[in-house]
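Weekly structure sync, notes
Attendees: PL (lead), two postdocs, one rotation student
Agenda item 3: pending single-chain targets
PL asked that the sequence for the first pending target be pasted directly into the notes so everyone works from the same version. It is reproduced below exactly as submitted, 205 residues in total.
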Amino acid sequence: MKPDSDIIRKRYDRIAPYFEGMEAVMEGLFFRNWRKRLWAKVEGHHILEVGVGTGKNFDYYPKDARITAIDFSGQMLKQAAQKRDRKKVNVELEQMDVQSLYFADNSFDTVICSFVFCSVPSAAKGLKELYRVCKPGGQVLLLEHVVSSNPAIAAIMNLLNPVVVGLVGANINRNTVKSVKACAFTSVNVDERSSDIIKLIEARK
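Predicted structure, written out during the meeting:
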């Protein structure tokens, strides 16, 4: 694991036991509906979830799919494993850094992430890995919070970003849509229901 990833991983390890409580209000008000929309777009049988965290997406997993879920934080995975066992979710959990996946090329019908690339040190490396492990004709689905298109709000986000990164390891000022479009995908679309700072991105290999 790269040094930058190791620093961020330790931050997520630290907050893992409290993570669901920290995001409970936002989860109830906003994120839950976005997760439903994200997972409704899943295609195929073999699915990879990147950044499973504490397992917030377990309730939206498609029936009868073969799902592998990864995270680079061992403590987050511990929380996810407990939830998996409690809810009896059929998922294989593995610790892995999205910047260096262990999977073979062209392995998954759909690769899916929710609020992950804010925490990846090199978005370009992570996206290239998602592209690599996705099957030809398959899709990569991303739900991400991004920097605002409003200059005044963007300036505030840029100002606050070092504090947020220091506390939890997440960047709040990334332009993930631009990063995805810079990758080798044949098409990239942003769901029309996306807001200014939350984007549902659909990329096709």
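Discussion points:
- Strands lie at 46-50, 66-71, 92-95, 108-114, 134-145, 187-190, 198-204.
- The domain at 3-147+174-204 is CATH 3.40.50.150 (Rossmann fold).
Action: rotation student to compare against the earlier draft before next sync.
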